Structures are given as C-alpha cells and as structure tokens.
C-alpha cells in the first residue's frame, strides 16, 4: 500500500519524524561531547619564600615534561612582586589535569618545592577555546 506524499513507500510523517529524531540525537551527542571534552585552564599565582622564586621556578620547570593531556604550561615571574610567579596551564580536559597531580615526577616536584613556597595568591579556572598552540 502506498500513502500520499510518501518517500519510497513510507509515509511522509514517518520520514519527517525519523529525521527530526536523528537531528535531535546528533545535536545532543555533539553538545555532550563538547561539554565533556572542553579544554581546562588554570591561572595561579604562587608566592615563594623571600629570595626563592628562581628556585621554585627551576623545580616546577623540571616536572613539566611527559604530562599527558597538557597543552601548555607557562611559568612567569610577576613583574611587581619579586617573590611571586604565575603558572598558566591548559589541559585537554579537567581529568587530564587531575591525573597529572598523581604522576611521580609531579609529586616529587611538589614535595621538593613545598618548603620554599610561602603561599598562594589568585587562582582562576578557565575554559580555553583556542589560541597559538591550542588549535
């Protein structure tokens, strides 16, 4: 039996409903994938013990290789505070950052630097969307 306004023997209403359902599924899946795969960023200020900023930077710089999911790790001296530094990180996702904190090299760097870290200043979590080196 054929229906008026059919496509290959299927009622037009059935074809449209199927198309709408497929489109909705695709949009939902894409939105979920983008939500779960968002890049994760951190910008944090660290305060070294007086006169120890360069030592902290050297320790942190040694631990940055081989961190899966790390897209950018920048250490910068604060321009106005001689004991402060800024750490700017971009990760493939938040889980990659969390996993990095469990790496033996990172744990060793934290333990080594802890005695010469006086404290922490500002800390911001971000959702990077692109830029040089980030695609």
Structure description:
- The protein is α+β, with helices and mostly antiparallel strands.
- It contains four helices and six strands; from the N terminus they run ββαβαββααβ.
- The protein has helices at residues 12-36, 53-62, 94-100, 104-113, and strands at 6-7, 10-11, 40-48, 70-77, 84-91, 117-126.
- Strands 4-5-3-6 form a four-stranded antiparallel sheet.
- The longest helix has 25 residues, at 12-36.
- The chain is globular and about 40 Å long.
- The chain starts with 5 loop residues before the first strand and ends in a 9-residue tail after the last strand.
- Residues 19-34 have low confidence and may be disordered.
How big is the Rg? 25 Å
Largest sheet data: 4 strands, antiparallel
CATH topology of the largest domain: Alpha-Beta Plaits
Q: What would CATH call the class of the largest domain?
A: Alpha Beta
Q: What would a concise description of this structure say?
A:
The protein has 135 residues and is of the alpha+beta class. The protein has helices at residues 12-36, 53-62, 94-100, 104-113; strands at 6-7, 10-11, 40-48, 70-77, 84-91, 117-126.
Primary descriptors:
135 residues, alpha+beta, Alpha-Beta Plaits, 2 domains, 4-stranded antiparallel beta sheet, two-stranded antiparallel sheet, 4 helices, 39% helix, 29% strand, globular
Compile the SSE list and pairings.
Layout: E1 6-7, E2 10-11, H1 12-36, E3 40-48, H2 53-62, E4 70-77, E5 84-91, H3 94-100, H4 104-113, E6 117-126
Antiparallel strand pairs: 1-2, 3-5, 3-6, 4-5
Helix pairs in contact: 2-4
């Amino acid at each position: 039996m054929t229906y008026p306004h059919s496509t290959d023997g299927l009622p037009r209403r059935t074809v449209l409903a199927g198309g709408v359902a497929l489109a909705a599924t695709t949009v939902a899946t894409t939105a979920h994938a983008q939500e779960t795969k968002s890049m994760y960023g951190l910008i944090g200020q660290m305060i070294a013990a007086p006169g120890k900023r360069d030592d902290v930077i050297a320790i942190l710089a040694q631990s940055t290789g081989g961190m899966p999911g790390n897209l950018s790790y920048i250490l910068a001296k604060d321009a106005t505070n001689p004991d402060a530094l800024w750490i700017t990180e971009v990760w493939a996702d938040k889980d990659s950052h969390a996993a990095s904190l469990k790496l033996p090299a990172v744990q060793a760097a934290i333990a080594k630097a802890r005695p010469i870290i006086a404290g922490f200043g500002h800390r911001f979590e971000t959702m990077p969307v692109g830029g040089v080196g980030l695609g």
